[in-house]
Amino acid sequence: MEDIEKISDKIEYEIDGAEDYMQCAFYFKERRPRLGDALYKIANNKINDMNLLHAEVAAMIEDYKKEHGDAPEAMKILYNIMHRKHIANAASVKGMMSLYKE
């Protein structure tokens, strides 16, 4: 469970970074379009990194299930809380990314 918590922190870090880069991308979209587009690409890379980390957390849970059976209730609760939070925050950033491309 400690490993999941540690990687979940990194997932949040990637989402927060993507949001920060998107805010900068919007700032520079009209002033310096090439820079805005570069910042958009960096934000997209952050989202890709988040997806890689999320896949690893899912693999950790599956590995645990193979070795020990069903995950403990505390692990399920922790994962579900973090997962919902990550999904909501990532959706917000992806919405910003969609708006940027309009």
Describe this structure in words.
- Helices cover 92% and strands 0% of the residues.
- It is mostly helical and 102 residues long.
- 16% of the residues are buried.
- It contains three helices and no strands.
- The mean pLDDT is 92.
Can you give keywords for this protein?
mainly alpha; 102 residues; elongated
What topology does this entry show?
Layout: H1 2-31, H2 33-68, H3 73-100
Helix pairs in contact: 1-2, 1-3, 2-3
Largest sheet: none
Helix amount, in percent?
over 70%
Number of DSSP-assigned strands: 0
Question: How many structural units, i.e. domains?
Answer: 1
Q: What share of residues are in beta strands?
A: under 5%
Element-by-element helix/strand order: HHH
Uncertain stretches: none
The overall pLDDT, averaged over residues, is 92
Strand-pairing-aware structural class: mainly alpha
Number of helices: 3
Shape: elongated
Question: What is shown here, in short?
Answer:
With 102 residues, the chain is mainly α.
